[in-house]
Every structure is written in structure tokens, then in C-alpha cells.
Amino acid sequence: MSLPPGFLDELRTRSSLSQVVGRKVTWDARKSNQGKGDMWAPCPFHQEKSASFHVDDRKGFYYCFGCHAKGDAISFVRETENVGFMEAVEILAREAGMPMPERDPQAQQKADRRTQLADVMEQAVRYFRLQLNTGAAAEARDYLERRGLRADALERWEIGFAPDQWQGLWDHLKEKNVEDDLILGAGLAKPSSKGGKPYDTFRGRIIFPIRDARGRAIAFGGRAMDPNDNAKYLNSPETDLFDKGRSLFNHGPARTAAGKGQHLIVAEGYMDVIALASAGFEAAVAPLGTAITESQLQMLWRISPEPVIALDGDQAGLRAAMRLIDLALPLVEAGQSLRFALMPDGQDPDDLLRAQGAPALQKILDAAMPMVRLLWQRETEGRVFDSPERKAALDKALREKIMLIRDPSIRSHYGQEIKDLRWQLFRPQRSAQKPRTGAQGRWNAPEKGAISSSRASFLVSAQGPRATERLREAVILATLATCPAVIEDFEGGIEQMRCGDPDHAALRGVLLSGLGLNAAQMRDKIDDVLGPEALENLLSQRHVSVVPCIRSPGDEEKARMTVAEELAKLQSARGLDAEIIEAAEDMSGEADEGLTWRLSEAARAAERAQRSVQEDRAEYETGENGVRISREERSTFNALLQAIRQHKPHD
Questions:
Q1: DSSP per residue over 515-584, as a string?
Q2: In the chain, which segments carry CATH 3.40.1360.10?
Q3: Which tens digits make up the pLDDT trace of 215-246?
Q4: How far apart are CA 96 and CA 90, in angstroms?
Q5: Where do the CATH 3.90.980.10 domains begin and end in the chain?
Q6: How would DSSP label each residue in 210-274?
Q7: Superfamily of domain 7-96
Q8: pTM > 0.70: yes or no
Q9: SS3 185
Q10: Does 465 score more than 60 pLDDT?
């Protein structure tokens, strides 16, 4: 409803902010000056001992110098009571003795009918509660006792029983002079298709009242006592009071508990919520027999920015979680998401609590995974990615899901997380040593350094195939590790590096998965994934340690120039290498003039490289960027030059 002009201003004027806040805090008598309306207290929004929360009663505003919370009386009630705007206004209006504005006649008529229906529902609650104490409910009482529900829990949740009678509730309400239209309108009975008297909606069932956030009884859930009943659980039909897709079981109490700092837990059914609340997890809710809707998701986020979805540990529970991901991805915002706590296979929260107690459940809740991890699990679990096509299909599926996210910042972070997970899945496998696996399934470095010193001296001697490329790769990787701010500038070139050395490939994967990290964070990430020896051994190699940007880390411009130059040389060497291979293949047949010209051009390039070898070697020895062409390539070119000189092109 809309409020008339000036209503809120008058409400704020007539409401004393210090009185509203005073119900939630203890004022610091030494700092506060009540006469001037200058009040101080420990902040109710974050844990602290000092009085950094300030209320200016005359201006009607509060501000915390610790957590920076600020607002007026309405926002304070909204935050501390965990209610919506209009509910906060109604609370303050009642306290200030101000009547709420009148609704228009049609809206008032609807409100009056909802009030009447709510009154009928309360009568039904009392009827079902009385029936639970009758002889007909003995089996129901035994069932509830086996499920661990004692008398105090039955009272707390107002659990009742609907006898297996066609008009038990109907006759009871008619004796109370309740009109037929209200009984039918509340969903408590259904008209007979045979023209007879309407019959009760719930028969032979344990009854769970469903209340809205304001505490009004709006519907019932019934569990069948007959094991052959087609519907084990049955909810009230939708009415003027009850919209199944916009309601949550235990909404009001859970909102209050979440407002006091408890984590909001979303379970699947009534018994799970009752068990959770009885075990101390009072901020627990459940959807009503259907998958979570967008409206319910928005309701959850109004209660808590990051609800924990605690689903049953079976295939149905997992499928429900996977469906929820697709619903939530377009709606996530900064600080607004979901986490998923999957119960052990075949158990629900109630089962786990009865078997192992609250600590076991708390452990699972603490380990709840973020939504991006469950998305990754959905797209990869049980699948084999042993071909480029399958890997491409995975990339496409994940890209399509990530593009559903509207917030560009969150979309970017999801992409980075997926890239990190992808690298872990497809990282090069070691043949010499088996990797150690940590408790979380994360790869850990072998006992010896990921990049051994013996290999370092091997590279320095420039012996073995592709030695020069490895020298350049080592310089590039070391530069990026010490100055990760430049990684993004060269992401494409880094991905294209051949990295024949698995240590280099592993380090490259970590660097690419750490876009946006600073130098300290990158070092921690490398240590965490590859072990502390990996980076230490790389930086200690002589041809790396003497590079200027390694000696003086943090110079982004110098690091950028070093990486650009080394990548360019790698690309040039790759082009020469391709020319050698192609020419060598063509030499197996009869050469023509075009082949001879190509070989001559390649030979001239090789000769130029040969002339610079000694100069480059001197640069390397004095700490510059290494040689330009390997000894193997030079030997190959020598052989090709000799072949050219001995070969005459045909006409």
C-alpha cells in the first residue's frame, strides 16, 4: 500500500530513536548525554566491547564508527527485527500511537476476508490439536514419539491430527457457526462432486500448521498414516491466504533467529525443520512440497544474504540442488548467493541429527560448498574428458551457465574460479613421482622440489632438446610469479607456450588461475598448489636470478618488457622450428626452386643467429635474457646449408 505524504515524517518525529534503539543496546553512561540526545553504546550489528555506536536523537539518525551501519528508526527496526519496510512502519506506528492509513474499499474488503479466513484457520488448529489426544490418534502419537518429538515439541509446533472421517472438521466448524464459504475458502474442505455435503481436505493425517512471517495460520501440511496413501504429504490448496510458491515453513521464527546471527538453513520438509530447530539450528525453513521458486529464493535472501541449502543425501536431493543452481545464477548479486550442504548418502538432516547429533551436522554445514563448486560438479561428475571435443563441450556448457549471471563482476569471478578448477582437472600428470593428495582432494607437491636444482644446472648447460625454450620459459614464469600484475597483458601468449617441462606447465596453470592476485597472494597460491620448493628452485636458477626484473621485483614496466621480449623470441624460434621441420620433410623428395629459396632464406636467418650466438652467450653470462637459438637448431641449419650447397635446382 502507498503511504500519504507526510506520514513517514510525522512517524519519525513522534518516534524516539533512542527509545527504539535502547531496547537492543546498553547505553554507555560515561559517553552518553541524554539531555542533548547524544547516546553511545556497543554496536548491535557487530561484536565489539567499545561504545562506537552513536545515536543522535534530535536528528533521528544512528551511525557506527566500527562497521559503518547507519540509518533511522525504520531502518533500525528492519535490521534488528529482520522485517520488511511496511512491517517496520507498522511496528513503529503502533508504538507511537499512530493509526495506519486507511486502505481503499476494495483492498479493505480483501483484507477483511483474509482476517476472517485466518480466524477459521485458528479454529482448525485448535481442533486438530485436540484430536491428537484422542484414541483414534494413538498410532500417530507412537509415530511422533519414534521420531523423537516429545510433548514440548508437539506444543511448540502445534502438531495435530485429522481423524479418518469425511466431515469431522466440517461438522466441528459448522457447530461454531462458520459459514460454508469461509470453510471452503480456507481450503479446509472440498465440495462434493456428487452433490452431497463437502468433505474434509485432511483425513487420517498428522497435521503441521503453516504460518506466515506474521504468525498467521495460512495452511496445513498433512502426513498420511496409511502407508498405501498415494500422497505421503499433502498441503492445503492455494487460497486467498496461502500461495505455496511464496510461503516457507517456519518463516517467522527463522527470520528472528537469523536476525540474531544464526545461519539460515533451508531443508526439504517439516520434520527436518523441526529436528534442526530442536537441535539449536532455529533459523531453519523449508519450501512446501515443491522445488524452491524464484519468489521463495528472494524471500530467503531477504532473511539472509547466503542461505545454506541442506538437501537430502540421495539422488533426488542432488537433482533439487542442481535445479536450484539454474534458478539462482541469473539472480545472484555481490554478497547474495547460496551455499550447499549435502547430507551423507541416504540421510536427511533429521536422520543425521538423531544418529550423530548436532556437532556432526554443524561440521557438514561448515563445509558447505559455494554454488560455483556445485555447478562444476554437475558438469564434470561421472564424465570422461579424453578428447578435445569433450573438453570443448565442457567449456561450452560452463560458458553458457556463467553467461546467465547478470552482474559482470560476479561473472568474472565465476570464470576465474572455473578456470582454476579446469586447470586442476586437466593439469599435466607427473610420471616420475606420484602426487600426494591432501584431505580435500587437492594436489600437493611431491617431497622434492617441483623444479629441481639438478634440472636447473641441466638447463644452464643448454644441453638436451628444447633447452633454449625452457630457459626462456623459466624467465617468463619467474617474472610473472614475482610481478603477477602483468599476467593479464600476456594471457594469450602464456597459454600458447609449449611448456614441454611438466613443472613449467604446472606453474603456468597456477599463474593463469590467479589473475588479479598480488605478488604475496600469488606466492601463497603457488606454495599451496605446488609446494614451497617450486618457486624457490625456479628463482634460484642462475639464468633466472640475474634477470633485472627478478633482482628488483615490483617494477611492472621492466617485467612487462622482459615478458614481451621473451615471448617474441619464443614465437620466432617456433617459426624457425616449423620451417626446419617442413623443409626437412620436403628434402626427402626432389627439391625445386621454391624449396631451395625457402631453405636459403632459412639458412640466412640461421647464419644471422649464429653470428649472434657468442654475443648472446655473453649477455646470458652477464645476466641478460639468454641465447636466441639452441645448439640443436644450429646443427640442423648447418646440415641444411650443406644440403643447399650440394644441391642444384632443376629447371
A1: TT--HHHHHHHHHHHH-HHHHHHHHHSHHHHTSHHHHSTT-HHHHHHHHHHHHHHHHHHHHHHHHHHHHH
A2: 247-404
A3: 899 999 999 999 999 889 999 999 999 999 99
A4: 10
A5: 104-242
A6: EE-TTS-EEEEEEEESSTT-S-SEEEPPP-SS--GGG--BTHHHHHHHHHTTPPPEE-SSHHHHH
A7: Zinc finger, CHC2-typedomain (3.90.580.10)
A8: no
A9: helix
A10: no
| Mean pLDDT of all residues in 488-499 | 83
Domain over 104-242 is classified CATH 3.90.980.10: yes
Kindly state the greatest CA–CA separation across the chain: 118
Alpha-carbon gap, residue 292 to 218, rounded angstroms: 19
User: Which residue's C-alpha cell is 539462482?
Assistant: 328
Q: How would you class 346 by CB atoms within 10 Å of its CB: exposed for 0-12, middle for 13-18, buried for 19 or more?
A: exposed
Count of C-beta atoms within a 10 Å radius of residue 446: 15
pLDDT digit string (tens) for 244-287? 999 999 999 998 888 778 899 999 889 999 999 999 999 999 99
The grid coordinates of residue 9 equal 515524517
Give 199-215 pLDDT, tens digit per residue: 999 999 999 999 998 88
Beta strands across the sheet bearing 369-370: 284-285, 265-266, 308-313, 339-345, 369-370
> Reduced to 3 states, what is the DSSP secondary structure of residue 123?
helix
Say whether domain 247-404 belongs to CATH 3.40.1360.10: yes
Count each helix (H run) and each strand (E run) in the chain, helices first.
Answer: 30, 17
